[in-house]
Write a structure and sequence with these properties.
single chain, 2 domains, TIM Barrel, 21 helices, mainly alpha, 9 strands, 473 residues
Length: 473
């Protein structure tokens, strides 16, 4: 069996002088608090604070980075315990799922998942042997035994990880009961909701009419027309602010934010309620709603997170069988310049409006996103995510945007994960990348070491704190 190794110089520059500087910079930020403002861990995990079920359901089943890689090698999602929409049986034996993961360990070589998984296994669970079919059962037993200990419950790990704050991603229809339970408990961890209205603004998606009916019920606002729909959304946003929310989250296929006039918006909305909306009208309505969400953010202060350019559920059969978020979201090219122009012309210099823009189309970094963030005060760049949250990709991001937008038009790192125990590993990788980039700036004579350390601290904690300030309800 191979030993599980974790090189403390991983990701740092190969050049010895730059590597030495990177070590110095990283030492100053390594143990700073984790600020996780864009993630998908369920608040109920921390509200209930129950032991994690088993190694498979902690480290494999919820992590679509893991399941998609194994799936690409022919391992079925059913055999990995991914639930089906139709309720047909899938693998429920956690040991069998764990063995399938360990048997496929080599597939993760060279990926960020390998870095994250290695750090979790080594630093959190004390594992010293590499996963394989031979080691699978012993590793399972060792991790499972740890998960039975109080020190490995969610709240204890939250505190151990040094999480200053964790933002979840929540349906606008949620009653946020888990968030309220956390606040009412005797635990002082900070977990805040994030308002994600995608299910309500994409009017040609299945289940939309039912979601609108539920919106009326939970808001107490009639949603039979467009004005009522907007009023109901405002009510829900206010409810989220009352419960600690700091941001909204918007996943669209494009960045188009062209507004509709009221009559057109109402016509399309009523057509959707009647079940007869066209694809063209639905697309226009989604663009209009991106603009309307910006208008609402200018009013209520919620930071608007925009991450367009993903074709969700690329394999329609997989989407129909397993639902979203199983790894079949594929990047699309995005036109940010023309798409965001209506939104930024209306709100980009409004001191009450703030947005963070993410992309997985890295061709836009230097051509579009850095110039936009470098001129509109309301806009900040979000770090690379989903497919680009890898060391070389994050380094390319810094190289592409810094000379135009600088460091201070970015918003800090977001881990964007459902895999709770991977949060510190993901932040560690991002901090190492920033240390490497800044070390090259120092050894290249561009920055002094003191400036580089100060910048690293700003990127790690100050910028995300400033980008997502607490709101008064």
């Amino acid at each position: 069996m191979r030993q599980l190794t974790l090189d403390d110089d991983r990701i740092f520059p190969i050049d010895p002088p730059a590597r030495a500087v990177a070590r110095q910079i990283f030492a100053e930020i390594r143990n700073l608090p984790l600020i996780s403002m864009h993630g998908h861990v369920e608040a109920a995990v921390l509200a209930n604070d129950e032991p994690f079920a088993d190694p498979a359901r902690l480290l494999v089943v919820p992590d679509h980075y893991v399941t998609r890689m194994l799936g690409s090698q022919g391992v079925s999602l059913e055999s990995l315990g991914v639930g089906r929409r139709d309720g047909l049986p899938v693998e429920t034996d956690p040991r069998a799922i764990w063995r399938a993961f360990c048997a496929g360990w080599r597939y993760f070589r060279g990926t960020p998942s390998r870095l994250w998984l290695t750090q979790q296994l080594s630093e959190i669970f004390g594992i010293t042997v590499e996963p394989s079919l031979d080691s699978a059962d012993k590793l399972y037993e060792d991790i499972d035994a740890k998960l039975r200990e109080p020190a490995f419950r969610p709240r204890a790990l939250f505190d151990r990880f040094g999480l200053e704050i964790l933002a979840t991603t929540d349906s606008p229809l949620s009653d946020l009961a888990a968030h309220r339970a956390i606040v009412a408990s005797d635990w002082d961890g900070v977990v805040v909701p994030t308002f994600r209205p995608d299910a309500l603004v994409h009017i040609n998606h299945s289940g939309w009419k039912d979601a609108v009916a539920r919106l009326a019920a939970v808001s107490g606002v009639e949603t039979g027309d467009y004005d009522g729909f907007l009023a109901a959304l405002r009510q829900r946003r206010a409810f989220f602010v009352q419960n600690g929310a700091r941001a909204t989250d918007h996943g669209h296929a494009t960045a188009d934010s062209t507004p509709l006039d009221r009559a057109d918006a109402d016509r399309i909305y009523r057509s959707a309620l009647n079940g007869s909306v066209s694809v063209v009208d639905a697309t226009a309505f989604a663009s209009n709603m991106l603009f309307e969400m910006a208008r609402m953010s200018a009013d209520d202060g919620l930071v608007m997170q925009i991450h367009p350019g993903v074709l969700r559920g690329h394999d329609s059969r997989v989407d129909a069988t397993f639902g979203p978020d199983v790894g079949f979201d594929i990047p699309l090219p995005v036109d940010f310049v023309r798409g965001l122009r209506p939104l930024l012309q209306a709100f980009g210099r409004d001191p009450h409006f703030h947005c963070v823009v993410f992309t997985i189309d890295e061709t836009t970094y230097s051509r579009e996103l850095a110039p936009l963030a470098g001129v509109y005060p309301a806009m900040r760049l979000g770090v690379p995510w989903w497919f680009l949250d890898a060391p070389h990709a994050m380094l390319r991001f810094r190289e592409a945007v810094t000379e135009t937008a600088g460091f201070y038009n970015t918003a800090g790192f977001v881990d964007d994960t459902r895999a709770f125990t991977s949060i510190p590993a993901r932040h560690d990788v991002a901090r190492r990348v920033d240390a490497a980039y800044l070390a090259n700036q120092v050894t290249g004579g561009v920055l002094g070491l003191d400036e580089a350390i100060e910048t690293a601290i700003d990127l790690t904690v100050r910028l995300p704190r400033e980008a997502y300030p607490p709101l008064k309800s």
